[in-house]
């Protein structure tokens, strides 16, 4: 579970009763599912089946739903979804909706349905498209559909085109795409003016650095620790500089020992300028350790920062 983030990532998927016609979006949402990796497993999922609204022309053939499923109208589901997304959200936390082909499909349908009931996406929410990211960050020769990426990353098969299964598959695929990169930084990058290029740059930089880091390890027969810090300011500034976050990555290790990330209480207010850069607020570090924690594991003799 990801904790203490300034961005709440919501992976979501819509299933509709037809492919929207070119030039129009006359498709009715029949299933709405979402997944929030920042929450406990009990509260991490949202899933509702919707009834086809009367203003839609129902496609030929009856709609097949699992037995015992209760359908709701979109005007009931939307406020429930917003409430679920924003539950226990801190004041400085931003919502990012993440979907595969979000910008050309899910976002457009969602906006159309919201407009129909007199609602809109909240102004401070953003939408991120993992298909657009895959097109930039991955090789051009491979197919980029969700099912193709699932097979490429060898993720166990789920029921395709069932929203709840698709959204869980999307999160697993996305986790593989950014593997080795600080997930918190990735989600924060989604707030940038050019989010796809920002996140793709993180992935490509990590991918390029890995052979170098492994080469150092093999040449000098030592493990290399790749680290980064976030601080209260710059060393050449007028005020003392304290660390507020310390993260590290050891590519030659396996499992939880590969990563280290810790927020630190600097025992001083974090300037607004610094908060705008790393999005770590005073509230986030208030109850954290008031000293720099040791993070260099036994056997490490080389640090790369």
Write up what this structure looks like.
The chain is α/β, with parallel strands linked by helices. The protein folds into two domains: 7-196, Ribonuclease H-like superfamily/Ribonuclease H (Nucleotidyltransferase, domain 5); 222-304, Ribonuclease H-like superfamily/Ribonuclease H (Nucleotidyltransferase, domain 5). 33% of the residues lie in helices and 20% in strands. The protein has helices spanning 74-86, 102-116, 130-137, 146-152, 163-177, 183-189, 195-220, 272-278, 282-285; strands spanning 7-16, 29-35, 45-50, 71-72, 94-99, 126-129, 223-231, 243-249, 259-263, 300-304. Strands 4-3-2-1-5-6 form a six-stranded mixed beta sheet, sandwiched between helices. A four-stranded mixed beta sheet has the order 9-8-7-10. α3 packs across α7 (195-220). The longest helix has 26 residues, at 195-220. It is globular, with a radius of gyration of 22 Å.
Q: What is the tally of beta strands?
A: 10
- Largest beta sheet: strand ordering: 4-3-2-1-5-6
Helical content class: 25-40%
- From the alpha carbons, calculate the radius of gyration and give it in angstroms: 22 Å
Q: CATH superfamily assignment of the largest domain?
A: Ribonuclease H-like superfamily/Ribonuclease H
Number of domains: 2
Task: Based on the coordinates given, report the CATH architecture of the largest domain.
Answer: 2-Layer Sandwich
Low-confidence stretches: 1-5, 55-62, 298-302
Brief descriptors of the model:
305 residues, alpha/beta, Nucleotidyltransferase, domain 5, six-stranded mixed sheet, four-stranded mixed sheet, 9 helices, 10 strands, disordered N terminus
């Amino acid at each position: 579970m990801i904790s203490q983030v300034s961005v709440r990532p919501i992976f979501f998927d819509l299933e509709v009763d037809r492919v929207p016609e070119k030039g129009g979006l006359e498709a009715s949402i029949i299933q709405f599912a979402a997944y929030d990796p920042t929450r406990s497993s009990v509260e991490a999922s949202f899933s509702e089946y919707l009834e086809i609204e009367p203003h839609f022309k129902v496609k030929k053939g009856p709609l097949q739903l699992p037995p015992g499923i209760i359908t709701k109208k979109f005007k009931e589901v939307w406020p429930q979804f917003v409430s679920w997304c924003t539950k226990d959200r801190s004041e400085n936390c931003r919502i990012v909706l993440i979907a595969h082909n979000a910008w050309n499909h899910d976002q457009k349908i969602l906006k159309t349905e919201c407009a129909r009931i007199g609602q809109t996406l909240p102004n401070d929410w953003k939408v991120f498209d993992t298909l657009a990211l895959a097109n930039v960050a991955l090789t051009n020769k491979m197919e980029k559909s969700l099912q193709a990426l699932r097979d490429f990353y060898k993720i166990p098969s789920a029921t395709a085109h069932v929203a709840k299964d698709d959204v869980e598959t999307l999160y697993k695929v996305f986790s593989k795409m950014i593997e080795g990169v600080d997930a918190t930084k990735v989600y924060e990058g989604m707030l940038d003016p050019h989010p796809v290029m920002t996140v793709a740059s993180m992935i490509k930089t990590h991918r390029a650095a890995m052979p170098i880091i492994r080469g150092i390890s093999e040449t000098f027969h030592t493990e290399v620790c790749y680290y980064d810090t976030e601080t209260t300011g710059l060393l050449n500034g007028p005020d003392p500089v304290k660390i507020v976050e310390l993260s590290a990555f050891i590519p030659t290790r396996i499992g939880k020992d590969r990563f280290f990330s810790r927020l630190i209480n600097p025992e001083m207010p974090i300037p607004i300028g610094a908060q705008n850069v790393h999005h770590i607020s005073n509230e986030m570090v208030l109850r954290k350790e008031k000293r720099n924690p040791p993070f260099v594991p036994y056997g490490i003799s080389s640090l790369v920062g």
